Amino acid sequence: MSAKKKRENQEKLEKAIATLQQVAESTITPRNIRKLVKDAIAMLQDEKTSIAVRAANAISLLDEISQDPNLPSFSRVTIWSAVSTLESIRE
Q: Residue 85 and which of 14, 43, 69, 91 are 20 to 30 A apart at CA?
């Protein structure tokens, strides 16, 4: 993978993490969902796995979270935004 592609992927990852932190820090988001979002952020920050694998694992967890009926619409839209950023990460 080229250095440029790696840098782009890293920037996308950081953007997705920043987006998810808005949900994790929001008081209108239920506590159990905030915990799951924090788990997704931790997954994305785990440098033991490749960036594409981290993105795929986080997308899977975030898809589950976004189906939760207790999720406020603001949080759902924000999570979808992070997922679309993560989906653009490719190796």
A: 69
Domain spans of the chain, in order of start: 3-87
- Say how many C-beta atoms besides its own lie within 10 A of residue 81's C-beta: 16
Segment 68-76 long-range contacts (CB within 8 Å, at least 24 positions apart): 68/33, 70/30, 70/33, 71/29, 71/30, 71/33, 72/28, 72/29, 74/26, 74/28, 75/23, 75/26, 75/28, 75/29, 75/33
**Does CATH place domain 3-87 in 1.10.357.10?**
no
